[in-house]
Every structure is written in structure tokens, then in C-alpha cells.
Write a structure and sequence with these properties.
heterotrimer; A mainly beta (150); B alpha/beta (384); C mainly beta (137); B: 384 residues; alpha/beta; Peroxisomal Thiolase, Chain A, domain 1; nine-stranded mixed β-sheet; two-stranded antiparallel sheet; 18% strand; C: mainly beta; three-stranded antiparallel β-sheet; 9 strands; globular; binds zinc ion
Chain lengths: 150, 384, 137
């Protein structure tokens, strides 16, 4: 094969996102450690993240219900491969625990970090609690991680 | 709607890095091979559909840059993007275009050049308000779901490893495969690097550079142009809610794939998939997903997938060979991956699958998978 | 509520067969390269692997330029003057920079490619296209 040329390009991409009303209310709530879901009046499903429409019934969601900071671990993993943080482009070093947690009062699960990264100490069905960051600013990283309820 | 068939397929030689060619040249490699396989000239193509994940290569309007590689200049051309299902969705759109009477010959081409961009970035750009801070890509998504599947169905790491062994050994018969190893063993898989518990490197699909194409023809044209067309018996697609946490039990139930396959089976008159299908080319992004799909696609009862792989039922000489090509675990240029599934299923019916040909294949299933949010099912047959 | 983020993403694009030949000829020979389709009797600039019109592969490479003709132009504030230029011997135009001084350039005026001293096999090995002065003829 004759010589081939490749061109390297580094792009800086910036974004500006609008949350919409329901996510704004949710974000203002977690600034005060208050978690709220929206509930569909038809199928009764309680949604996190809150959103304007029930995807199953296609009806508007207007009823807010309180959600606990304690829930059940539905699924988990420990990530060993360093993974890129989509907010910054920086690598997040492993190993770190991740879980899907069904908070009491919600019918959907929330994915977040776990403070445990030993697979031998994680199991589906464990009860987990939110550990809040000291400084709250109304974003999902106000949740530092989840820890097992002792 | 009129009957339609696939009369030609073409694939590039998939690899980790195809920097010997540009994106449009890669597309051309697959498109030319598909036209040659169908015995057609560029002028015979009425319309072109392209499939690609645009965020991965960071290039605006990828269909513009590669379109002429797919002979699209001066013709109707569009791109379809539905995540990992983009390829199967594009094939289905091609079937619809030909079936509707809009066009007689539709060329469908999927491509991806992971080596040119940054796949992790593409996968990490999830909902900025909800889960971008924690998102860990396809790997994290699968790994999360697997713990639940293992706990519920008792699948073992060794059973999952058997899927990778089957894939790499089958791929050794496929000249287009990116990864192959005729001597792969369960130990190789279990000893490969742990990426995210319980997924080892060899459990996970690679990132490949590659393209794949099919030529779709209306029934009349197909009869004239091909001695043995691969007829489209059924094609179905399903969409799902957006967040991984919205989806009930994920791998355990996979509502999208279950509904799409049930719909396709009903249209094609398939009541016993294990007996009636001669082979399946399914979109298995990770070994555990292949096992879960066996149950969801009705190849076995819930909880029986581990035994199915152990008994060799889905091996290349088994009752229902699954992924005789080596599957997604052996080549994964994402925008092309769904097209590869359909192209491989079609090549089997056309009798042109080479060293991994299943003798006398008459009915084949191809599926697509796009995170949990999409699933496609396509059934091809040797008779209209 | 508004959320702003910025992320750095690296890319590495392969120029491919014809693209590499074009870039290497810039770097090593200060030469523009086009591709000739003998069926369509058209020469495409820059070089490419196949004819966009008839689909034919295996086009043969031909030297084009260094002279060129201005097809159209625009001024991008703070960035310069960008132009579509048709190198001599080619039937299509390429996008590049027009080098000053520029005083109301008209389509059809004569240009000449200008190469940089330091070249790496990149489209910017071409500094731009300069207007050919008529020298009072
Ligand atoms: Zn509802
Ligand atoms: Zn031509």
C-alpha cells in the first residue's frame, strides 16, 4: 500500500440546554434534598426523571408525588475501564460501582454511583440510601453516591 | 404492498482501523460489492438509503460526504439513524420503498469508522440534567442489566463465555470478520481483561471500521435478476421510552425485541422458531445479551438459554445456528452492524455465505438492537 | 433552568486513496492533483477515488493548476476572503482562501496557487490563491 495521510482534529464543542419545567422543579427540589416524581393519572406509573408526558399513555403528567431517599438496588456493576465523563471529556478512573436504584415511591429506577466497588459485596435487592454532597446546587451530582442501609 | 427481495449483498473487510480508505471509499467498497453480487450497474439503482451514527465521527451531514460513494449522486438519498438499529431500520425502510411501488431497486448502505472519532464521547452525551454525570456508555448499560439477568435466570459466566467462543470460531470462517480465532476457548474469555463486572473484554463487541450493503428489489425485478432471491417475509420495528431506568427489567423482558419478533413471527407464520428457522443473525452486543435474546426470541423457555448454548443447539452445526458469521462480537461498525445482520441472513438464503453457509437455508431471522430504545426483526425466506 | 457544558473531542480522519495522493503531492511536489473520468470527459478537483456522476472507479490522476480561475468569493470578517477557484485543467472548483491585496475581484480573473514553505500533507499546505497582476499589459 502506498502512503496514506490522516488528519488529526481536536474539536471543542459547547452546549446550552434547557431543562423544561418538570426537570426545573425537580432540580430545585434536590437542592433541598427533596425528591419528587410525576405520576400518571391513567396507568399510575410514577416517573423519575419527571417529564411532561407519560410515554405509555401519551397523557400529560401534572401530579407530583414525594419519593424517599431510600430504595432497592435492582441492578449493579463495577466499571473497571476508565470511562469518559460526558460533561467534561475527562476520564473517570475505575473501578467504581454503579447501580440502578428504585427509590421508594418511584416506579422507574435511577442510575448512579455506589460507594461500594467490590462485586462480592453487591447484590440485587440490597437496600440503598442517598449520600448527599455537602454543597447542593440543584443538579444530579448533588447525589454523591448510594450506600447500603445498615 | 408488493413482495420484495434482497438480490445482492456486499461487505468491506472490517477491521479496527481502515485508514487505507476515506469514509466515502469505505462506503464504496461495500456498495460496489453489493452491486456486483446482484449483477447490477450504478445506473440501475433507483434510490439509496444510508445508515450511520453521526456523533461518532464528528462530521456534519455524513450522508452528504459518503453519498456518492453509494452511487447516490442525482438520486433520492436519505439517512436513517436509530442507534444500533440504524442498519436494520434502514433495510426495513428500503423494503418499504420497494414494496410501496415507489422504487424498483433500492441500495441500502451502512457504515462506521470508529477509528476516526471518539465512540465513548458519542455514548457519554446522554441527558445533561439526569444521567450524564454517571453515564458509562453501552458497557455500563449492559453490565447493569446483566446482574439482574444473572440473579433471576441463574446464567453463569462460563455459559456467557461459550457465546464468545462460538462467535470467534464461526468468525474464523468469515473473511469479513474483524476478530476471529478458530481455537478460542472458554478460558481465553474468562482470562481476558475485566471491563465492567461481569463483562470481560471478549464478552463485549469491538469497535470496528466497516461498511455493508444490500440490494433490495421489487418482486418482478427480483425474479428477473436473481435465480434465488431472499424474499422479505416480515419486518417489524419497535421504539421504547428514553431512560434506562424507565424500562422494566431490561434484558429480562426486552419489550421492544419481544414485540417486534412476535409481530414478525405472526406475519411470517412462525409458531416454533427453533424448528422453523434455519438460522438467525441476531444483534448481540455482549455475550449475555445473546443468551437473553434466545429466551426473548422464543428459541427456548425462560431460564433455559444457558443450557441451549451448552448443548450446542445454536452452534454452526446445531439445530438453529445463531450468528454463523461470528455476529456483532466479531465485527461491529455500528452504523453497518444491522445491515450486516440482514446481509448475512440474505447471503444464507441466496446460498452465497461461503465457508459459513448453512446447507439448504430457507428461512432466516435477522434482528437489530439500539440500546434498549429500539428493536427490529426481519424474516427472510426462499419463497415469496 | 439552563445548563452549559463544553467538551474536547479528538478526531483522526483518513484521507483515503485519492485524498492521500492529493495531499502528498502538495507536500512533496507543490502540485495540485485532479482525477480524470474518461467516460464523462471531466476532470475533478481535488482528486477522488471515483466519478460522482457515472460511478466509475480507477480514475487516472492528472496535474492541474498552478494557474486557476476565480469562480466566486465571499469575505468572512476576521478570517479572510474565501473563494471557489477552478484550477487550470479541472472542470470543478475547490474552496480555499483568496490572498490579498483584494480590490473588488471579479469572477473569471486569473489566480495562482501559493504553497507554504513548511508542508505536512494537509490542505493548508496551500496558503491560498493569489490574484495574478496584469503588469500593465
Ligand atoms: Zn400512563
Ligand atoms: Zn464519470
Amino acid at each position: 500500500m502506498s502512503e496514506r495521510v490522516s488528519v488529526p482534529i481536536e474539536m471543542v464543542q459547547s452546549w446550552r440546554y434547557s431543562s423544561g419545567d418538570s426537570m426545573e422543579r425537580f432540580s430545585n427540589g434536590i437542592r433541598h434534598k427533596r425528591i419528587e416524581a410525576v405520576k400518571c393519572g391513567n396507568c399510575q406509573r410514577r416517573y423519575l426523571p419527571p417529564r411532561p408526558v407519560c410515554g405509555n399513555c401519551h397523557l400529560s403528567l401534572t401530579e407530583w408525588v414525594p419519593v424517599s431517599d431510600v430504595g432497592t438496588l435492582e441492578a449493579w456493576t463495577v466499571v473497571y475501564l476508565p470511562f469518559l465523563d460526558g460533561r467534561t471529556g475527562e476520564l473517570r478512573d475505575g473501578p467504581y460501582g454503579m447501580g440502578l436504584i428504585r427509590l421508594d415511591g418511584s416506579d422507574t429506577t435511577l442510575n448512579h454511583f455506589l460507594n461500594q466497588n467490590d462485586p462480592a459485596k453487591l447484590a440485587v435487592g440490597m437496600r440503598m440510601r442517598i449520600v448527599w454532597r455537602d454543597e447542593l446546587h440543584g443538579a444530579m451530582d448533588d447525589i454523591l453516591h448510594f450506600e447500603e442501609v445498615s | 404492498m408488493r413482495p420484495v427481495a434482497i438480490i445482492g449483498t456486499g461487505q468491506t473487510n472490517h477491521a479496527r482501523c481502515r485508514d487505507d480508505v476515506s469514509q466515502p471509499e469505505l462506503v464504496r467498497e461495500a456498495a460496489s460489492r453489493a452491486l456486483d453480487d446482484a449483477g447490477l450497474q450504478p445506473a440501475d439503482v433507483d434510490a439509496v438509503i444510508l445508515s450511520n451514527m453521526e456523533l461518532f465521527e464528528g462530521r456534519a451531514l455524513p450522508e452528504l460526504w459518503v453519498g456518492e460513494g453509494a452511487f447516490a449522486n442525482g438520486k433520492p438519498c436519505m439517512k436513517i439513524a436509530t442507534g444500533g438499529t440504524s442498519g436494520t431500520s434502514s433495510c426495513i425502510a428500503g423494503f418499504h420503498q420497494a414494496a410501496s411501488g415507489l422504487f424498483d431497486i433500492v441500495l441500502v448502505v451502512g457504515f462506521e469508522k470508529h477509528s476516526e472519532g471518539h465512540t465513548q464521547t458519542g455514548m457519554a452525551l446522554t441527558d445533561p440534567f439526569w444521567d450524564r454525570a454517571v453515564a458509562s456508555g453501552a458497557l455500563g448499560n449492559f453490565a447493569l442489566s446483566i446482574s439482574q439477568y444473572m440473579a433471576e435466570r441463574g446464567v453463569s459466566e462460563e455459559q456467557a463465555a461459550r457465546v464468545a467462543v462460538k462467535s470467534r470460531r464461526n468468525a474464523a470462517r468469515n473473511p469479513h470478520a474483524h476478530l476471529s480465532d478458530a481455537n478460542a476457548t472458554i478460558e481465553d474469555v474468562l482470562n481476558s481483561r475485566l471491563l465492567a463486572y461481569p463483562i470481560h473484554l471478549m464478552d463485549m463487541c469491538p469497535q470496528s471500521d466497516g461498511a455493508a450493503a444490500i440490494v433490495v428489489a421489487s418482486g418482478d425485478k427480483a425474479r428477473k435478476l436473481s435465480a434465488k432471491p431472499a424474499w422479505v417475509k416480515a419486518a417489524a420495528t419497535r421504539h421504547e421510552q428514553p431512560y434506562i431506568g424507565d424500562i422494566e427489567q431490561r434484558l429480562l423482558t426486552m419489550r421492544t425485541l419481544r414485540d417486534a419478533s412476535r409481530s414478525a413471527y405472526a406475519t411470517a407464520g412462525i409458531t416454533e422458531p427453533l424448528k422453523q428457522l434455519d438460522l438467525a443473525e441476531i444483534y448481540e452486543p455482549v455475550t449475555y445479551a445473546e443468551l437473553a435474546w434466545y429466551e426473548i426470541l422464543g428459541f427456548c423457555a425462560e431460564g433455559e438459554a444457558g443450557h441451549l448454548i451448552e448443548a450446542g443447539v445454536t452452534g454452526i452445526d446445531g439445530e438453529l445456528p445463531v450468528n454463523p458469521s461470528g455476529g456483532v462480537l466479531s465485527a461491529n461498525p455500528v452504523g453497518a452492524t444491522g445491515v450486516i445482520r440482514v446481509a448475512e441472513a440474505a447471503a444464507q438464503i441466496l446460498g452465497r455465505a461461503g465457508a459459513h453457509q448453512i446447507e439448504g437455508a430457507k428461512t432466516a431471522l435477522a434482528t437489530g438492537y439500539g440500546v434498549y430504545a429500539w428493536a427490529d426483526a426481519v424474516i427472510l425466506g426462499s419463497a415469496v | 433552568m439552563i445548563r452549559e457544558e463544553a467538551i474536547k473531542i479528538p478526531f483522526q480522519y483518513a484521507a483515503g486513496t485519492a485524498g492521500s495522493e492529493f495531499l502528498i503531492n502538495l507536500r512533496d511536489h507543490r502540485q495540485l492533483t485532479g482525477s480524470r473520468c474518461s467516460d464523462c470527459e471531466r476532470t475533478l478537483a481535488p482528486a477522488r477515488a471515483y466519478c460522482p456522476d457515472c460511478g466509475r472507479e480507477g480514475l487516472h490522476s492528472v496535474n492541474i493548476g498552478p494557474g486557476a480561475e476565480l469562480v466566486s468569493w465571499t469575505i468572512v470578517p476576521d478570517k479572510g476572503v474565501f473563494a471557489l477557484v477552478r484550477p487550470d485543467g479541472a472542470d470543478t472548483a475547490m474552496l480555499h482562501k483568496l490572498l490579498g491585496p483584494i480590490d473588488d475581484p471579479q469572477p473569471g480573473i486569473r489566480l495562482q496557487v501559493v504553497f507554504r514553505e513548511e508542508r505536512s500533507g494537509h490542505i493548508n499546505d496551500i496558503e491560498g490563491f493569489a490574484i495574478v497582476q496584469e503588469n500593465g499589459e
